[in-house]
TrEMBL record, chain A:
UniProt cross-references to SUPFAM superfamilies, sorted A to Z: P-loop containing nucleoside triphosphate hydrolases
InterPro entries named among the record's database cross-references: AAA+_ATPase, ABC_Ni/Peptide_Import, ABC_transporter-like_ATP-bd, ABC_transporter-like_CS, Oligopep_ABC_C, P-loop_NTPase
GO biological process: peptide transport; transmembrane transport
Record PANTHER family: ATPASE AAA-TYPE CORE DOMAIN-CONTAINING PROTEIN, OLIGOPEPTIDE TRANSPORT ATP-BINDING PROTEIN APPD
Family: Belongs to the ABC transporter superfamily.
Gene Ontology molecular-function annotations: ATP binding; ATP hydrolysis activity
Superkingdom in the source lineage: Bacteria
Name of the molecule in the record: Peptide/nickel transport system ATP-binding protein
GO cellular component, as recorded: plasma membrane
Residue span, ABC transporter domain: 10-260, 354-609
Membrane disposition: Peripheral membrane protein
CDD domains on file: ABC_NikE_OppD_transporters
From TrEMBL, chain B:
Membrane topology: Multi-pass membrane protein
Membrane-traversing stretches: 12-30, 135-156, 168-195, 215-232, 270-295, 315-341
Phylogenetic lineage: Bacteria, Pseudomonadati, Pseudomonadota, Alphaproteobacteria, Rhodobacterales
Family, similarity comment: Belongs to the binding-protein-dependent transport system permease family.
Name used for this protein in its record: Peptide/nickel transport system permease protein
Domain of life: Bacteria
Keyword presence, Hydrolase: no
From TrEMBL, chain C:
Gene Ontology CC, one term: plasma membrane
CDD domains named in the record: TM_PBP2 (cd06261)
Protein name according to UniProt: Peptide/nickel transport system permease protein
Domain ABC transmembrane type-1: 123-387
Keywords in alphabetical order: Cell membrane, Membrane, Transmembrane, Transmembrane helix, Transport
GO biological process, one term: transmembrane transport
Length: 694, 348, 397
């Protein structure tokens, strides 16, 4: 049985981990220390490649063949983990320390029933009988709030939805009531509303079982909501450590400060208070600068001081275990107003360019994907009666979770698919039935797209320059190769990439640089309408701001209409003029950014707003947790698409929500909401996000 | 599930019809028929005589008609020849022509008559199949477990010394076709020149009485080639599974290494090789042909060579039909088995 | 003269291969010096397995080439000597003239031919046919596999059905049906050659047109040139007096391929293409979901451009690996054909035929069958190791 232990659960001291390749040693974590007390939740924050996951694997002593701990100690309840034998280690793993990963689907064995995977844990660690193990599994599955636990235990992982799978992974981690739970980006693969519910569950269960947590995330907002303390990492080192309040409000490291300035918090505005991107790039592990790793990107860098020697952690006086890895933290005026970022003129939307009228897109799919082809088919209503218009220089955000039909909409607009019904009008021309082959080069070049995944957006076997020149060629721009090359170079200038990049292969570029090339390619033919499909969601926080900024700047100069598809409401609030919220193929709300972000809300918008984590301690949110998952578009519920998860459903008389699709209701000033709720109910709604007065 | 199997069987039958038709077409090309008539009749026949000879025996009918008759969906020909003799496809010696059935094709169980062995083709094929069945049984028994074992052992710790040495063995065996390994094995273990003489260099005696001494070399020869291939597939699949995240989950949940391999990795790792084993059949059939020729074992492969080499049309057709069916049936089994092994594919 | 001892035999054989050693050394020295600039080929020199495989392959390639240039062979591989029947390795030559090489280094076969020279000439047969046949099989497989994978639907169903049809045929049966003198007489292999060899031309034409259709000034002369040249080669290849296909006047016919070789070539291409088709189809289905393909679609690229310039280059890794493996497989197939005495003339020095000749007396005389068997084994092993090395290196980074 668990022994009582009241010292620190986990104590990492000056830990250094390196990976060894054929060519060199690559230090992944250097001089890293952190302490987790009983019942405490510590957040580990940093951008990709900063070594936060390596720390987690180091704690689990699972670094693979190439990784090795080259210095420091990891103590778990006072015992050094690296001195344990394989057998002792095995007894600790799963029973005292458990881990939850990013991809729930990948972390469950696809060929084993869920129940068996859960029951394995107590059977290994406590040697209990099948029956006892089953009882325990049933209890834990009930604890993680999964409906119909008995059926779930009999299921294979692929039969569950993403959210359910992650709950199973959590259940598995809790089977043996561990003292320490390590969560490595546990919600990144999930939809926002599902993420909110899972985070809620983790918090609740952590308290119930008294588990300490090490929460690894790139999302500051999420850490704010879940953790007591935070440790910020940069390029293999911890740069700042302290309680949530200290680090969020009284930060003592330039990187932390720069990070907060580059994320869109409430109050940021693309014209009046633009974001400030961190200049430069994340250093590669074998190209770290001497002295302070953040030095080359830091505003407060002093030559001869910061690059002289390795910098230790300093204690910040008068605070609870608040430390920073900055030599100048006492000299810097942390409250000085942000300089170097000018407010810009707000652009006014021009004439209407694009109009959608009652656009519908249905697919016929075989009912059984694998063995189908013959047999019955099913109609998937990917887009239901979409109507809106977009103006010159306007940013229209399209918000929704997976399966809401935003990608289908983009395909129809681009001409990769033709519409089932309705009209798409571009400058008085109807193009809904013209597929891309039949559109002229001009029309094609006018509507272009920026893709989500930077690692997938460029052809890996063609140089950057060749890809842009190919686009120019297809759009019929320039008569000679030399002319096109000149134009290509000026496009590289436009997206602020050095001209040398023209001859590089995509794999030599970082994610943000690739995304810039993608933008350059989209603007090759002076696009008037650009569909940006989550262009920054796969990028690191500090790069996101720079790429967003670039898009905004090009838009201002070219008067482009930007259709910005995103699930991230923070960024949507920051850059869009109007917002369209979609759910299961329906537009549920449409209005200006102010209208959508303020009551009255559509119930779905309300939940979405509540679900998005905001990295600001001043923000108080109303707590709304949606039950269940987004229904499959193959099998949508009858009536209102949102009725299965709506918390307002009881306020509508009769079973209207379940039988009838609500009409699009005109609120004031063009604000539209698709809901059955009465006027009074709408008027009674309160804001979800409130900012406390400073 | 039923519908799925039905569809597969349908496709399989269609494939079989297409394939047999191709074989029928190729074996019934005029030069082949000419050779047949000369070898059966008289080597000094003139072109006109060949023509009548063939005409009298129904060979000059349109191809589709001949195919239909052979298959047994069209009535067999009855031709009064230019020499006055009445011949019919379905006539049997010793029975009056009136009692002959109308249809007599493969579907009725009539496989034709072998001109080389002077026996009904059906019987020859049956006997040959039994002999080859015996060979294949031992081949499978030796090949599949060994290959899987090698593959799993090599793949469970990628890059280790065990992995490197086992992989090398597997690569060498896949680089050795049966006619090479057979020659080397005979040279080393059966020749008087080396002098080990542990095994017999022919398997003729094994047809009646198979012993370790006279049967091991042919079995090993066929098994070796396929073994390397399956082992490499298993290794690749196993190595991939061992890096999967759910294996890490299992490890970090405290499952011991042997249990990880047996309980978590094995089933997932065997899905891919299972299909491969089944799809090995067309190639195993090749091995059978080579080995039976090399070791003089008069099974199915040997019969194929005799039939093809001597222009024995009916026998060759029969052999083709059987081998095509063997291949198609194993493909069907592989498809169905894949669905059962892999829970991610649901058949509703 | 005394027979040679084993040490002497080995020394003499190694000396005989001198030009091969020099060439291999040069290739390796040059490649290793510039390996960082040579892409995947250069990276292969980081893998010991890949290097061993490459060395083996180079050995046989150079042996074949120099053998055909009469550099390595010691005797005429078809010349028989009544005194040398079944003589063991290292036997001095009796009854030959003064200028001839004084020994049969690896002995004589049952007709008294020099086993060493036959092995060297056998390499030339493989080096001539295997890579080219594999290349043709790839052209066919790619030209059909890309659209099948990219478009899917009915086209895919039909093409996949045809591919499976060929795959369901046991290879030897197919060979026995295709590669017999009677079938050759009907001209069917020539017709098949006519069809199969069109694919490379179609492939090239579509490849260039899809890339350069936006620049007609470059495209038109380029296409005329390439099509003219390949077309002429094609017509020369297929047209042959005496078969069903005689399209080109004799004067313009550049070369004639011996009937036996052509049939073997066609059969091997025919057997290999469905597998290539399946691989390419699978790769195309995977790669077509990538964003860069969507990007090409949204800028209005033609379908063939997407298939040949966006999908194909990114499938090259697995295809190169398979290409190496497939040359090995083709070598095995050629051996099989020789082993059953199909297609190639009976006195041909190719390894399959030689093994078949030698196996009859295998219980007593090992060397006539063992030498070509080991030769074939080492070449295929080399190709497999090379493929393995390439696969490993292409997966890295």
């Amino acid at each position: 049985m668990k022994d009582k232990y009241d010292g620190p659960i986990l104590e990492i001291d000056n830990l250094s981990i390196s990976f060894f390749t054929r060519l060199r040693e690559i230090p992944a974590v250097m001089d890293f220390s952190v302490k987790v007390m009983p019942g405490e939740a510590v957040g580990l924050v940093g951008e990709s490649g900063c070594g936060k996951s390596t720390v987690a694997l180091g704690v689990m002593q699972d670094l693979g063949v190439n990784g090795r701990i080259v210095g420091g100690t990891i103590r778990f309840k006072g015992r050094d983990l690296s001195e344990m034998s394989a057998d002792e280690l095995r007894r600790v793993r799963g029973s005292e320390i458990a881990m939850i990963y990013q991809e729930p689907m990948a972390s469950l064995n696809p060929a084993m029933r869920v129940g068996k995977q859960l029951m394995e844990v107590p059977k290994i660690h406590r040697g209990v009988s099948d029956k006892e193990a089953y009882a325990r599994a049933l209890q834990v599955v009930t604890d993680v709030k999964l409906p119909d636990p008995e059926r779930i235990l009999q299921a294979y992982p692929h039969q569950l939805s993403g959210g359910q799978q992650q709950r199973i992974v959590i259940a598995m981690a809790l089977m043996a009531e561990p003292s320490l739970l390590i969560l490595d980006e546990p919600t990144t693969a999930l939809d926002v509303t599902v993420e909110a519910a899972v985070v809620d569950l983790v918090k609740e269960l952590g308290q119930k079982y008294g588990t300490s947590m090490l929460f690894i995330s790139h999302n500051l907002g999420l850490v704010l909501e879940t953790c007591d303390r935070i440790c910020v990492m940069y390029s293999g080192e911890a740069v700042e450590r302290g309680s949530i309040a200290d680090v969020f409000d009284e930060m003592q490291h330039p990187y932390t400060q720069a990070l907060f300035r580059s994320i869109p918090l409430p109050g940021a505005d693309k014209a009046a208070r633009p974001l400030r991107a961190i200049p430069g790039n994340f250093p590669l592990p074998h190209e770290r600068p001497p002295g302070c790793n953040f030095g080359p990107r830091c505003d407060y860098f002093v030559e001869g001081l910061c690059d002289e020697r390795e910098i230790p952690m300093f204690d910040v006086k008068g605070s609870d275990r608040h430390t920073t890895r900055c030599l100048r933290f006492e000299e810097i005026d942390w409250h000085a107003p942000l300089s170097g970022v000018e407010a810009r003129d707000k652009t006014e939307p021009g004439k209407v360019i694009l109009r959608m009228e009652e656009l519908k897109k249905y697919y016929e799919v075989a009912a059984n994907a694998l063995f189908g082809r013959s047999g019955e088919t099913r109609v998937v209503k990917a887009n239901e009666t979409l109507s809106f218009e977009a103006r010159e220089s306007e940013t229209l955000a399209i918000v929704g979770e997976s399966g809401c039909g935003k990608s289908t909409f983009a395909k129809v607009l681009m001409g990769l698919e033709t519409a089932t019904e309705g009209k798409i009008i571009l400058d008085n021309r109807e193009i809904q039935d013209t597929s891309i082959e039949d559109r002229g080069a001009k029309t094609v070049s006018e509507i272009q797209m920026v893709f989500q995944n930077p690692f997938d957006t460029l052809n890996p076997s063609m140089t950057v320059g060749a890809q842009i020149m190919r686009a120019l060629e297809i759009f019929g721009i320039g008569d000679t190769v030399a002319e096109r090359r000149e134009r290509m170079l000026s496009l590289l200038d436009l997206v602020k990439l050095p001209r040398e990049f023209a001859d590089r292969m995509p794999r030599q570029l970082s994610g943000g640089q690739k995304q810039r090339v993608g933008i350059a390619r989209a603007f090759a033919g002076d696009a008037r309408i650009v569909v940006a499909d989550e262009p920054v969601s796969a990028l690191d926080v500090s790069v996101q701001a720079a790429v967003t900024d670039l898009l905004m700047e090009i838009q201002r100069e070219h008067k482009t209409t930007l259709l910005f598809i995103s699930h991230d409401l923070s960024i949507v609030r920051y850059l869009s003029d109007r917002v369209m919220v979609m759910y299961l193929g329906h537009v549920v709300e449409l209005g200006t950014t102010e209208q959508v972000f303020a009551p009255p809300y559509h119930p779905y918008t309300e939940a979405l707003l509540s679900a998005v984590p905001i990295a600001d301690t001043r923000v108080a949110k109303e707590h709304i947790v949606l039950e269940g998952d987004v229904p499959s578009a193959m099998n949508p519920p009858p009536g209102c698409p949102f009725q299965t998860r709506c918390r307002w459903k009881s306020k509508v008389p009769g079973n209207l929500c379940e039988t009838e699709v609500p009409p699009m209701r005109q609120m004031q000033d063009g604000h539209q909401v698709k809901c059955h709720l009465s006027e009074e109910e709408f008027r009674g709604m309160t804001p979800v996000i409130r900012i406390a007065a400073e | 599930m039923g519908l799925f199997i039905l569809r597969r069987v349908g496709i399989m039958l269609l494939t079989a019809v297409c394939l047999t038709f191709i074989v029928f077409f190729l074996t019934n090309l005029y030069p082949n028929l000419e050779k047949l008539s000369k070898s059966q009749g008289n080597f000094r026949m003139s072109d006109a005589e060949v023509e009548t000879w063939l005409g009298n025996r129904g060979y000059t009918q349109p191809l589709l008609v001949k195919y239909g008759q052979w298959l047994g969906v069209m009535p067999g020909y009855v031709i009064e020849g230019s020499d006055g003799e009445l011949r019919g496809r379905c006539f049997e010696t010793g029975l009056p022509p009136e009692e002959a059935p109308t249809f007599c094709g493969v579907l009725q169980g009539n496989w034709g008559f072998s001109t080389v062995f002077q026996e009904p083709a059906g019987r020859i094929i049956g006997e040959a199949l039994a002999l080859t069945g015996k060979l294949m049984f031992w081949v499978m028994l030796l090949m599949v477990p060994t290959a899987l074992l090698i593959g799993v052992l090599a793949g469970m710790r990628e890059g280790s010394a065990t992995d490197r040495s086992l992989s090398t063995v597997a690569i060498v065996t896949t680089a050795t076709p049966e006619y090479v390994s057979g020659v080397i094995l005979i040279a080393v273990f059966a020749s008087s020149a080396v002098g080990l003489k542990w095994f017999k260099g022919t398997a003729t005696q094994a047809m009646e009485n198979a012993t370790f001494e006279n049967f091991f070399l042919p079995v090993l020869t066929i098994a070796l080639y396929g073994m390397g291939y399956i082992a490499r597939m298993t290794r690749a699949s196993m190595a991939e599974v061992m890096t999967a995240q759910y294996i890490r989950t299992a490890r970090l949940k405290g499952v011991s290494f042997p249990n990880i391999v047996v309980k978590h990795a094995l089933r997932n790792a065997l899905i891919a090789p299972f299909t491969v084993i089944m799809l090995q059949f067309p190639w195993l059939l090749n091995g059978v042909v080579i080995v039976e020729t090399l070791f003089n074992y008069k099974g199915f492969g040997w019969t194929l060579v005799q039939a093809a080499g001597n222009n024995d049309i009916d026998l060759l057709l029969g052999v083709s039909v059987v081998s095509v069916f063997v291949v198609l049936v194993t493909q069907l089994i592989s498809d169905i088995g894949y669905v059962y092994l892999n829970p991610r594919i649901s058949v509703s | 003269m005394d027979p040679l001892s084993w040490a002497e035999i080995i020394t003499r054989v190694l000396t005989q291969f001198l030009p091969v050693w020099v060439s291999i050394a040069i290739v390796f020295a040059v490649s290793i010096t510039w390996k960082r600039k040579l892409g995947l080929y250069g990276k292969m020199f980081d893998s010991p397995i890949g290097m061993i495989g490459f060395a083996l392959v180079l050995f046989w390639v150079f042996t074949g080439i120099f053998g055909a240039m009469d550099l390595i062979v010691t005797h005429d591989s078809l010349g028989q000597s009544a005194f040398m029947k079944n003589e063991v390795p290292g036997t001095p030559l009796r009854g030959g003239d003064e200028s001839a090489y004084p020994y049969y280094l690896l002995g004589g076969d049952n007709l008294g031919r020099d086993v060493f020279s036959r092995m060297v000439d056998g390499a030339w047969v493989v080096v001539q046919i295997a890579p080219l046949a594999t290349l043709f099989a790839f052209m066919v497989g790619i030209t059909l596999g890309l659209p099948a994978g990219y478009f899917g639907g009915r086209l895919d169903t039909v093409l996949s059905f045809l591919a499976n049809l060929i795959l369901a045929f046991p290879v030897i049966l197919l060979f026995y049906l295709l590669v017999t003198p009677e079938i050759v007489e009907t001209g069917i292999p020539s017709y098949m050659a006519t069809v199969l060899f069109v694919f490379p031309i179609v492939f090239l034409a579509v490849l260039l047109n899809s890339r350069y259709h936006t620049r007609p000034k470059l495209r038109t002369p380029l296409l005329v040139l390439v099509l003219g040249l390949t077309g002429w080669l094609y017509l020369s290849l297929i047209s042959q007096a005496g078969t069903g296909v005689e399209v080109l006047p004799q004067a313009l016919d550049l070369f004639d391929v011996p009937g036996g070789i052509l049939v073997v070539f066609v059969a091997v291409v025919f057997v290999n293409s469905p597998t290539v088709f399946r691989i390419v189809r699978g790769l195309a289905m995977d790669i077509k979901t990538r964003d860069y393909v969507a990007a090409a679609q949204t800028r209005g690229e033609g379908r063939w451009y997407i298939m040949l310039w966006e999908i194909l280059p990114n499938a090259r890794g697995p295809l190169i690996v398979d290409f190496c493996l497939r040359i090995g497989y083709t070598t095995i197939l050629l051996g099989t054909l020789g082993f059953f005495g199909l297609g190639l003339p009976p006195e041909s020095p190719d390894w399959g035929t030689t093994i078949n000749d030698g196996r009859r007396l295998l219980q007593i005389y090992l060397h006539p069958a063992l030498v070509p068997a080991v030769a074939l084994l080492s070449l295929v092993l080399g190709l497999n190791l090379l493929a393995d090395g390439l696969r490993e290196e292409s997966l890295r980074d």
